[in-house]
Design goal:
single chain; alpha/beta; 21 strands; globular
């Protein structure tokens, strides 16, 4: 297996592999370019996203600034919206469904690091450069979710469709569909039901 294949499979890999460094360096440069492009320059921003986030649905809008580790390993559905300061460390596949909205300062962190410092600390690779041991787990967010501000989503997390994740939450593990969940660690508070529907006539008049 190549180091990229190991990484995407969640196995221990070498993050300083030449192929991976080339992909991440390109992504980091595109992030800087995107972040420096005014939101009024829509076509220019879209062209940058063609390289940074090619697997995106129609209607994707990233307010910026954005920070992707690779970008190409993240897939988003249609009508995805992210407010300020989106961070995605997509060392494993990150999959986001349709009609998903992010508040500011949302972070998706797919990497993991060994708990023992003896395994975690940098070491001298046989090719003569310093590197370390990393691995990760994929992250999945279903359709029609709202992820509020300052939420951190950890490696291996799975958020079902129709969920609302409260501000400041740290999500690890599985959140069932149609759940209102929040906290650190993030826990399900209750199901979202028809009783939560807004009476538009009452709200507008």
């Amino acid at each position: 297996m190549t180091e990229k294949e190991k990484m995407l499979a969640g196995k221990i890999y070498n993050p300083h592999d030449k192929e991976l460094r080339a992909i991440s360096s390109r992504a980091h440069a595109l992030c800087i370019k995107y972040n420096g492009t005014p939101e009024t320059c829509f076509k220019k921003r879209e062209k940058i996203l063609d390289g940074l986030l090619p697997n995106r649905g129609e209607g994707t809008y990233l307010q910026g600034p954005v920070h992707f580790d690779y970008g190409v390993f993240t897939k988003v559905g249609k009508n995805f919206y992210a407010n300020f300061n989106l961070t995605v460390l997509d060392t494993c596949p990150v999959t986001i469904g349709d009609n998903v909205f992010f508040g500011p300062n949302v972070a998706i962190l797919a990497p993991k690091h060994p708990l023992r410092y003896a395994d975690r600390n940098p070491y001298l690779h046989a090719d003569g450069y310093m590197t370390d041991k990393e691995y990760g787990a994929p992250v999945t967010i279903g359709d029609n979710c709202w992820i509020a501000g300052n939420v951190t989503i950890l490696a291996g997390a799975s958020i079902g469709e129709g969920c609302v994740i409260g501000a400041g939450s740290v999500v690890a593990g599985k959140i069932p569909a149609n759940s209102l969940a929040y906290g650190n660690p993030c826990k399900v508070v209750r199901q979202i039901t028809e009783n939560d529907a807004i009476d538009l006539k009452k709200e507008l008049f």
